[in-house]
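Hi R.,

As promised on Friday, here is the backbone we talked about, encoded as C-alpha coordinates. Could you run it through your design pipeline when you get a chance and send me back a sequence?
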Protein backbone atom coordinates (compact mmCIF):
# COMPACT_ATOMS: atom_id res chain seq x y z
CA UNK A 1 0.00 0.00 0.00
CA UNK A 2 2.90 2.35 0.70
CA UNK A 3 4.37 1.77 -2.76
CA UNK A 4 1.15 2.31 -4.72
CA UNK A 5 1.26 6.13 -4.81
CA UNK A 6 4.39 5.93 -6.99
CA UNK A 7 2.27 4.91 -9.97
CA UNK A 8 -0.16 7.85 -10.11
CA UNK A 9 2.40 10.30 -8.69
CA UNK A 10 4.72 9.41 -11.56
CA UNK A 11 2.41 8.93 -14.54
CA UNK A 12 -0.25 11.57 -13.87
CA UNK A 13 2.19 14.52 -14.01
CA UNK A 14 3.99 13.03 -17.01
CA UNK A 15 0.68 12.69 -18.87
CA UNK A 16 -1.02 15.88 -17.61
CA UNK A 17 1.99 18.27 -17.63
CA UNK A 18 4.52 16.76 -20.04
CA UNK A 19 6.31 20.06 -20.76
CA UNK A 20 6.91 20.73 -17.07
CA UNK A 21 8.17 17.19 -16.50
CA UNK A 22 10.50 17.42 -19.51
CA UNK A 23 11.76 20.79 -18.27
CA UNK A 24 12.57 19.19 -14.92
CA UNK A 25 14.27 16.27 -16.66
CA UNK A 26 15.84 13.90 -14.17
CA UNK A 27 15.02 16.33 -11.35
CA UNK A 28 11.47 15.06 -11.77
CA UNK A 29 12.60 11.86 -10.02
CA UNK A 30 13.59 13.88 -6.94
CA UNK A 31 10.20 15.62 -6.96
CA UNK A 32 8.57 12.20 -7.29
CA UNK A 33 10.49 10.84 -4.29
CA UNK A 34 9.51 13.84 -2.16
CA UNK A 35 5.84 13.53 -3.15
CA UNK A 36 5.93 9.80 -2.48
CA UNK A 37 7.48 10.37 0.96
CA UNK A 38 4.59 12.70 1.80
CA UNK A 39 1.97 10.24 0.52
CA UNK A 40 3.64 7.23 2.17
CA UNK A 41 3.95 9.16 5.43
CA UNK A 42 0.24 9.96 5.37
CA UNK A 43 -0.65 6.34 4.60
CA UNK A 44 1.63 5.12 7.40
CA UNK A 45 0.17 7.67 9.82
CA UNK A 46 -3.40 6.49 9.13
CA UNK A 47 -2.57 2.80 8.62
CA UNK A 48 -4.76 1.75 11.55
CA UNK A 49 -7.78 3.13 9.69
CA UNK A 50 -6.84 1.33 6.47
CA UNK A 51 -6.21 -2.06 8.07
CA UNK A 52 -9.53 -2.56 9.84
CA UNK A 53 -12.54 -4.60 8.86
CA UNK A 54 -10.97 -7.49 6.95
CA UNK A 55 -13.55 -9.61 5.16
CA UNK A 56 -13.47 -13.35 5.62
CA UNK A 57 -13.28 -15.14 2.28
CA UNK A 58 -13.37 -18.89 1.69
CA UNK A 59 -9.98 -20.53 1.09
CA UNK A 60 -10.65 -20.76 -2.66
CA UNK A 61 -10.85 -16.96 -2.92
CA UNK A 62 -7.65 -16.61 -0.90
CA UNK A 63 -5.90 -18.99 -3.32
CA UNK A 64 -7.23 -17.08 -6.34
CA UNK A 65 -5.91 -13.89 -4.75
CA UNK A 66 -2.42 -15.35 -4.43
CA UNK A 67 -2.58 -16.62 -8.03
CA UNK A 68 -3.58 -13.12 -9.22
CA UNK A 69 -0.75 -11.55 -7.22
CA UNK A 70 1.79 -14.03 -8.57
CA UNK A 71 0.53 -13.57 -12.14
CA UNK A 72 0.75 -9.79 -11.70
CA UNK A 73 4.31 -9.94 -10.33
CA UNK A 74 5.37 -12.26 -13.17
CA UNK A 75 3.74 -10.02 -15.80
CA UNK A 76 5.31 -6.90 -14.28
CA UNK A 77 8.73 -8.58 -14.18
CA UNK A 78 8.37 -9.76 -17.79
CA UNK A 79 7.36 -6.29 -18.93
CA UNK A 80 10.19 -4.64 -16.99
CA UNK A 81 12.72 -7.05 -18.53
CA UNK A 82 11.45 -6.28 -22.03
CA UNK A 83 11.41 -2.51 -21.50
CA UNK A 84 14.59 -2.25 -19.46
CA UNK A 85 15.32 1.36 -18.48
CA UNK A 86 12.41 2.55 -20.63
CA UNK A 87 10.01 1.48 -17.86
CA UNK A 88 11.30 4.41 -15.79
CA UNK A 89 9.77 6.95 -18.15
CA UNK A 90 13.02 8.14 -19.76
CA UNK A 91 11.49 8.45 -23.25
CA UNK A 92 8.83 10.73 -21.78
CA UNK A 93 11.27 12.89 -19.78
CA UNK A 94 14.16 13.11 -22.19
CA UNK A 95 14.60 13.08 -25.93
CA UNK A 96 15.29 9.37 -26.07
CA UNK A 97 14.28 7.72 -29.32
CA UNK A 98 12.80 4.28 -28.87
CA UNK A 99 11.05 1.87 -31.16
CA UNK A 100 7.46 0.76 -30.75
CA UNK A 101 7.38 -2.38 -28.62
CA UNK A 102 4.89 -4.90 -30.04
CA UNK A 103 6.41 -8.24 -29.08
CA UNK A 104 5.52 -10.28 -26.00
CA UNK A 105 3.98 -9.28 -23.60
CA UNK A 106 2.84 -6.26 -25.63
CA UNK A 107 1.19 -8.53 -28.17
CA UNK A 108 -1.23 -9.70 -25.44
CA UNK A 109 -2.36 -6.22 -24.46
CA UNK A 110 -1.05 -2.72 -25.08
CA UNK A 111 -0.58 -1.95 -21.38
CA UNK A 112 0.71 -5.07 -19.60
CA UNK A 113 2.22 -3.04 -16.75
CA UNK A 114 -1.15 -1.59 -15.82
CA UNK A 115 -2.77 -5.02 -16.10
CA UNK A 116 -0.05 -6.35 -13.78
CA UNK A 117 -0.88 -3.64 -11.24
CA UNK A 118 -4.57 -4.57 -11.36
CA UNK A 119 -3.74 -8.24 -10.83
CA UNK A 120 -1.42 -7.45 -7.91
CA UNK A 121 -3.83 -5.05 -6.17
CA UNK A 122 -7.00 -7.09 -6.70
CA UNK A 123 -5.12 -10.26 -5.75
CA UNK A 124 -3.94 -8.55 -2.57
CA UNK A 125 -7.55 -7.73 -1.72
CA UNK A 126 -8.72 -11.30 -2.34
CA UNK A 127 -5.82 -12.74 -0.32
CA UNK A 128 -6.24 -10.41 2.66
CA UNK A 129 -9.89 -9.35 2.60
CA UNK A 130 -8.90 -5.77 3.43
CA UNK A 131 -11.54 -3.41 2.01
CA UNK A 132 -8.93 -0.65 1.62
CA UNK A 133 -7.19 -2.87 -0.97
CA UNK A 134 -10.44 -3.25 -2.88
CA UNK A 135 -10.78 0.55 -3.02
CA UNK A 136 -7.10 0.88 -3.91
CA UNK A 137 -7.58 -1.61 -6.79
CA UNK A 138 -10.65 0.23 -7.98
CA UNK A 139 -9.02 3.65 -7.70
CA UNK A 140 -5.88 2.47 -9.49
CA UNK A 141 -7.94 0.88 -12.27
CA UNK A 142 -10.12 3.98 -12.77
CA UNK A 143 -7.17 6.40 -12.80
CA UNK A 144 -5.15 4.16 -15.08
CA UNK A 145 -7.88 3.15 -17.52
CA UNK A 146 -9.67 6.47 -17.86
CA UNK A 147 -6.91 9.06 -17.33
CA UNK A 148 -3.40 7.67 -17.79
CA UNK A 149 -4.02 5.26 -20.69
CA UNK A 150 -5.95 7.70 -22.92
CA UNK A 151 -3.28 10.37 -22.41
CA UNK A 152 -0.50 7.85 -22.95
CA UNK A 153 -2.11 6.57 -26.13
CA UNK A 154 -2.42 10.10 -27.52
CA UNK A 155 1.29 10.60 -26.88
CA UNK A 156 2.17 7.23 -28.45
CA UNK A 157 0.09 8.02 -31.55
CA UNK A 158 1.90 11.33 -31.84
CA UNK A 159 5.29 9.68 -31.38
CA UNK A 160 4.80 6.59 -33.60
CA UNK A 161 1.96 7.60 -35.95
CA UNK A 162 0.37 4.97 -38.21
CA UNK A 163 2.33 1.98 -36.85
CA UNK A 164 0.86 2.69 -33.41
CA UNK A 165 -2.65 3.12 -34.83
CA UNK A 166 -2.29 -0.28 -36.59
CA UNK A 167 -1.00 -1.86 -33.38
CA UNK A 168 -3.86 -0.25 -31.44
CA UNK A 169 -6.38 -1.74 -33.89
CA UNK A 170 -4.87 -5.24 -33.59
CA UNK A 171 -4.14 -5.53 -29.85
CA UNK A 172 -6.53 -5.08 -26.91
CA UNK A 173 -5.93 -2.13 -24.63
CA UNK A 174 -5.99 -3.54 -21.12
CA UNK A 175 -7.41 -7.04 -20.98
CA UNK A 176 -5.96 -9.56 -23.48
CA UNK A 177 -9.32 -10.42 -25.09
CA UNK A 178 -8.02 -10.62 -28.66
CA UNK A 179 -5.06 -12.78 -27.62
CA UNK A 180 -7.41 -15.06 -25.66
CA UNK A 181 -9.76 -15.40 -28.68
CA UNK A 182 -6.81 -16.29 -30.91
CA UNK A 183 -5.56 -18.82 -28.37
CA UNK A 184 -9.00 -20.51 -28.07
CA UNK A 185 -9.39 -20.94 -31.84
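Update: got your reply. Pasting your designed sequence below so it's all in one thread:
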Amino acid sequence: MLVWPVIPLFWLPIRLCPRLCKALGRWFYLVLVLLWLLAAGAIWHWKAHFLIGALSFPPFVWIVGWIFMLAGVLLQTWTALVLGRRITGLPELEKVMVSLETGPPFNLCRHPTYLAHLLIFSGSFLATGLPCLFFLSLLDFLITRFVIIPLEEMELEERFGQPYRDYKRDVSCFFPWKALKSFLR
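One thing I noticed while checking it: Residues 14 and 20 are 8 Å apart (CA to CA).

Thanks again,
M.
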